[in-house]
Each structure stands twice: as C-alpha cells, then as structure tokens.
C-alpha cells in the first residue's frame, strides 16, 4: 500500500514563515496554455564542478563577460511534515516517514504543476536533492535524498480516490510524472528558511550564489532546481552554528 499523496503543487501556498510573499500566479491557476510555455523551461542536465566560493570567478571567466547559461544539477523537494487533510486524505509526509519506507525509498507523486513536472522529468539518476519541510511552523532543509529512478507516469493521476486524480489525463498520454527518491542522510543540523533568506537577501543586493534562488523567486513550486553553487552554499550552512 503506497503512502498517500503528499507532495503538493496545485493550490500550494507559500511557507508560513513567508506570509508576505507576492506571487503573480498560483499553481492553482496553471492552464493548458501554460503547459506549452513551461516545456521550454526544462533545465539542462549536468552540473558545474565549481563550488560556491568560485562563483564570481566562474562568471567573470565567461567570454564577453556575460553570465553563463544556468545549469541545474541538484534539486529541492518540498513535503509537509504536519497533518493536513486534502479531500479526506492526510498528505503529511516528513523525512522520518521516508526513513521507515522499504529501502528508505519512495515515489515523489502528486505534482500537478507543469513547471514542477518538467523539473521532475529533467532529474537524472544519482542527482541529489534537499528534503525540505514546508507549510509548517518552521520550514527548512532537514536532509538529503537522491534520485534512484528517473521520471515515469504518476499512477495517482488515474486513481479517482486519490486527492490528485486528474480526469483529463489519459494512460496513453499521461500528463503527470514522478520519480523515486532514496534517503541519503540528515543534514548535520536543521537549516531554517529564515536563515537561508538572510543570505539570499545579501546575495541579491551584493552578488552571490543565492541571488536567483527559486525558493524565493518561485516560492509556491514544490519541486525546484538548484545550481551546484546554490546547493554547495546551502549545504555549507550545516557546519555553522545556528544564529
């Protein structure tokens, strides 16, 4: 019996710590027209080997002095650690729930936003992602998972009893995809959204690896890409004492 669908995109809200977030369009408003537009946003696979400390040097070394094309090779996956009913089903799923799964592995289902779906489809075997507790009293990064199976059809779209059932999707041409992820480790400490936001604001003002981080530019996406520099910088925070 699979776990109930818990990785929410449609109608997602910004984290409770971000009540002032200004979003031009909620995922609930995503249309078929946007689906075509989002196809072009699929990020390239692969990754930069430069760490966040070499971020400025890497940018300056590009021909003509222009920034290089952004390459995403890591991810951030939001899931809700606190109970919340959606169409009568509890969508709670914390990293502790993942750890007790067989082989500490689960399918990442229930994504109903075209851009987030395209990000799922762009994931490559072995790539790592932050497991992020969302829509809770204290949102933030709690651990690391890795992709152990690349995108394939999300079975919940065909289940009328599932809160993420999509009557418009056909088995011969499924709209929605999912991947399998496996627990890697807990971060050495909880890295709260508030702390990451402080660095984001500094980097946005003065330049730095987090200046374009989607966690703040597209808060409502439950599946988000990270550059190597973004991933390295956030991970480096686990070594620092919490403020």
TrEMBL record:
Q: Does the keyword Transit peptide apply?
A: no
Which InterPro entries does UniProt cross-reference here?
5hmC_binding (IPR052181), EVE_domain (IPR002740), PUA-like_sf (IPR015947), THYN1-like_EVE (IPR047197)
Signal sequence extent = none
Where, per UniProt, does this protein localize?
A: Nucleus
Cross-referenced Gene3D superfamilies: ph1033 like domains
Question: What SUPFAM superfamilies does this protein map onto?
Answer: PUA domain-like (SSF88697)
Q: What is its main location?
A: nucleus
Do you know which Pfam families this protein is assigned to? EVE (PF01878)
Q: Where is composition skewed (Acidic residues) in this entry?
A: 29-38
Question: What role does it play?
Answer: Specifically binds 5-hydroxymethylcytosine (5hmC), suggesting that it acts as a specific reader of 5hmC.
The name under which this protein is listed is Thymocyte nuclear protein 1
Q: Which organism is it from?
A: Rhinopomastus cyanomelas
